[in-house]
Amino acid sequence: MQHVDGNALAGPFADFFSFDVTTATARCNGCGSVGELARAMVYRSGAGTVVRCSTCDHVLATLVETGDRAWISLSGVSAIEVRRG
Amino acid sequence: MSFITRGFSGRSRERDDRLPPGQTLVHDFPVLSAGPTPEVDTAEWEFTIRTESAVHRWNWDEFLALQIDEVDTDIHCVTHWSKLGTSWRGVSLDTLFEQVETEQEYVMAHSYGGYTTNVPLDELLDGKAWVAFEFDGQALEPEHGGPARLLVPHLYFWKSAKWVRGLVMMDQDEPGFWEQNGYHLHGDPWKEERYW
Amino acid sequence: MSEVSTPGATATPAASAALRAVPRSGWHVATVAAARRETPNASRLELEVDGWPGNAAGQHLDVRLTAPDGYTATRSYSIASSGPGTRVTLAVDKLPDGEVSPYLVDEVRAGDMLEVHGPLGAFFVWAPVAETGDARPVQLIAGGSGVVPLFAMAQAHGDADDPVPFRLLYSARTPDDVYFAGELQRLVGASAPFRLDLVYTRRAPEGWRAPAARITRETLEAAVFPAAEQPRVYVCGSTGFVERVADWLVELGHDPRSIRTERYGGT
């Protein structure tokens, strides 16, 4: 299955976060690299959205959505930096 | 604020008594994936079952030398599609477990690429599950889990782990990849066990 | 993610203000004001979006369609327009096995209403040097329908009469498949510096300087700003196109941190 990049996270995550996640910077728990989530690799299917580190493939985040429920995991990132402008 | 979009019906949805609740029939074979498609050479492929006391291993040739079953079955994906009358060839988990002694009752299936999914052992035995390497008369394509995938057709299809490389026995049930992220620990399509 | 983010090192107060000015997204009702063919395989939709807060050049929106039985399908589309106001332009390519794009290309007509979520994404965006203080040249590289957000940037550049040098390298199948052909020609002649390099992959016009062929590393190198000029590069297209081009750019010495990509999926 083809992946897209983290730009595609803007819509799905906008319902849950008060900032644009694509410009937020995260550190990967797998390899320690740091980058904007817009640069991550995103696998989207009906089952959910899986965000992977573009350096090491480690799963950074997942989003599973059904009609009225959603599950968000950020278990693959150690921290997210949000710019206040 | 959702409203009906004029002229939009989505994919055609047919009804059939063989469909569990909330499912619709498809004729193609949608691909769902949580990551890149692993390219696994059968020369490198290995299947293992790890118990409290031993690790059992089969390479590709040893695996194909086991008794091979023909399986005709319906498959049901949690994303609401079902596919009826699919045909597979594979090795029954009963055959694999003939050589395995274990007191542990739960299984974590592990895949090339890192995917995991959990299934109780008694849901894999007695003719309920296979490690399948052919679909519709052809070698299983990598995007559908080839060289071999788990086939557990009585549960939602995410339990039928693609690119399966082995089973690890566990004392207690533990969530796999999707199960940690909202999906049901068990996943019976007739009970609509989709999410927590 | 291999790259350290650049904004901390280079952001100016003006750049921060521009980012802060990106409005919070929301769901809106869009009324189709006009729908017409853009190419044989694509439509241009003009949407009048109730409550739209305006958008930056390069942003996208999500379109949600709902069937009578409640089934919904949501897809992302880049926005071809930018700036304040409630009028939004999309150009939608029809995917052969698509579920939403055939509806938007073949079925939708003026007066129809759609749900849209946006504006979305503050990473793959461009703003004039007057707002950002960033005077590096800008190289746009488009594969097929990937031109849409890059056209928005080029149009915004022209509208702002921005002095930063702009180039667009645009790979299209045939002359008939070029999106915004008239608008792009007008930008070539406008006062803001803009160069257009078209590459045809299947059929070139008569007398074209090169036979139809896919972009190679050599044609890429010949068309884009050299790495020494430290251009900012925006690449948009299919996943395969974007990955080929991004790899070549890095091989040609471009700083990975100055390359921003948007993949459409597909092949």
Automatic annotation (TrEMBL), chain B:
Residues 1-21 are annotated as: Disordered. It holds the Pfam family Oxidored_molyb. It comes from the Bacteria. Residues 35-178 form the Oxidoreductase molybdopterin-binding domain. PANTHER family: OXIDOREDUCTASE MOLYBDOPTERIN-BINDING DOMAIN-CONTAINING PROTEIN, PROTEIN-METHIONINE-SULFOXIDE REDUCTASE. This is Sulfite oxidase-like oxidoreductase. It comes from Agromyces badenianii.
TrEMBL record, chain C:
PROSITE patterns: FAD_FR. Keywords: 2Fe-2S, Iron, Iron-sulfur, Metal-binding. It comes from Agromyces badenianii. It comes from the Bacteria. The keyword Iron applies. This is Oxidoreductase. Residues 25-126 form the FAD-binding FR-type domain. Its cofactor is FAD. One of its GO terms (molecular function) is 2 iron, 2 sulfur cluster binding. Transmembrane segments: none annotated. Gene3D superfamilies: Nucleotide-binding domain of ferredoxin-NADP reductase (FNR) module (3.40.50.80), Translation factors (2.40.30.10).
